[in-house]
TrEMBL record:
Organism: Alteribacter keqinensis
Protein's name according to its UniProt entry: GNAT family N-acetyltransferase
Origin organism lineage: Bacteria, Bacillati, Bacillota, Bacilli, Bacillales
Superkingdom assignment: Bacteria
SUPFAM superfamilies: Acyl-CoA N-acyltransferases (Nat) (SSF55729)
Gene3D superfamilies: 3.40.630.30
Length: 131
């Protein structure tokens, strides 16, 4: 299986609306949100997003379709997102952060995010001093 990561828009991400719903996650658009999609051929199988806020760059809306999990799709989306964020010039921001679930937490920690607190079923993680 060859996975291709592409820039997509919110309307395209909406294809996975039911998958978000099934996980109890909300899919919402925000001004300035960037979306990345993982494709298996022409099928959208995963999405991640990020946007700039006053606090830094927030990671949002991460999902991979159930039947494609455990194959490294999220890792691909995650590293592509990091690569693109590091390329943003003059954001004035040095921090990335996320409210992540139990299944995504280990990847955030692997990439140097630090656990700060737990809010209901989410763990707040932060990465400071983006280089
Ligand atoms: C979290 C999620 C996106 C992971 O997708 P995935 O494509 O299966 O993940 P990958 O196969 O790329 O795995 C990458 C790493 O994440 C970790 N991981 C993946 N699934 C995990 C799970 N269920 N529990 C704990 N860690 C997990 C592993 O460390 C894995 O690395 P390894 O396989 O090299 O050991 C997917 O399980 C999902 O969509 N979950 C529901 C929605 C969700 O929780 N989103 C996160 C919101 S912040």
């Amino acid at each position: 299986m060859e996975i291709v990561i592409k820039r997509i828009n919110y309307k395209t991400a909406l294809i996975l609306k039911n998958a978000y719903k099934a996980e109890g996650l909300k899919l919402r658009d925000f001004i300035g949100m960037s979306w990345l999609g993982a494709y298996d051929n022409t099928t959208l199988i995963g999405v991640v997003a990020y946007r700039r806020t006053k606090k830094g760059i927030v990671f949002k809306s991460d999902i991979v379709l159930k039947e494609y999990r455990g194959m490294g799709v999220y890792r691909k989306l995650f590293t592509e997102r990091l690569k693109r964020i590091k390329k943003i010039k003059g954001t004035g921001s040095k921090r990335m952060y996320a409210y992540c679930t139990q299944s995504s937490l280990s990847l955030f920690l692997e990439y140097g995010f630090v656990k700060k607190r737990t809010v209901r079923r989410y763990t707040y993680v932060e990465y400071n001093n983006i280089k």
